[in-house]
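quick one, 344 residues, struct below
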Amino acid sequence: MAESVKFEFGNHSDVGQVRKANEDYFGSVSGEFGDLFIVCDGMGGYKGGRVASTTAVESIQRHFKTVKKDADLRIELFNSLKLANKEIVEKADVDDELGKMGSTAVVALLHNTELYFAHIGDSRIYRVRDDVIERLTRDHSLVQEMVDNGIINEEQAEAHPQKNVILRSLGPNGNSEPQVDPRDEVLFKDDYIILCSDGLTGHVEDFEIKETVLKYPPQQACIKLVEMANERGGKDNITVQVIKITDGKKRATSLRDMAKLKQAAIVAAVAFVVLILWYALSNFNQEIKIIAPVQDTTKAVKRAPANIEEDSSSTVGDDKNGGADAAKKPLKDPKGNEKPNPQN
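---
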């Protein structure tokens, strides 16, 4: 049996402080394929936007109810968005009021221990892992293209007057080719996956999203994030879903971590070898100093007693001879007359 993760999730959507109606829509569905979460942001006015986002969510859900566990999930994500686009276009064709409608979409699929995701438009998917937030999707927007081409930077993009112009969407007026990320990310215990519309990211910074999901349970975190966006103007509809992986693989078992551990082991091994070489060279230099040639004082040391002996023998010998001779020689007085020697 394939290993799977356990998770908790929450969701919340709000009309915001400016719009008259909520054109966002969200949903989820589970089956043999895994667990699917969706957020869509409708466009085209009250009626059109709501119809587009609702149609997108329901089409994706309906498609996945037919998906089997052994299916290619990347292809199925792509097919679900293609179906959503087809149904939105069909509804627009039969109702003139819906002619300009469209929708963004972000879809996250949890299958066993893997995450698959797809998106179109500027709604986003984030992952929080080890106190780091990472955006897994790239906005299909004009300002993102400008950032990618070096025309403006990220800070300028946030305040750009054409910030809301998107280049891809589901519906009759958008480039409806969905972008399915080719990666399948491994899910780990304590990972967070966040799906949201641009009504959230237009007011709340990435680091604030991270801090909020780490601080509160998923449902409460969703409510707090929506409140933050509303407190800062709430210029658009706001929708967010938060998924917390509560049980599953630990990070140390990932291939990415194994590569990092291997790299760290190599660095440690190199450092150990360098330390050993340094220690060996240090001792080698000390040995060289010990056995290096020094001034030879052996001869001088041996000569010194000989000289002393010669000097002492001559002196002492003279003294002895002189003493013996003195004992034999007669004594004389100051005038030169001999005196009797008492030693004779």
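The chain has nine helices and 14 strands.
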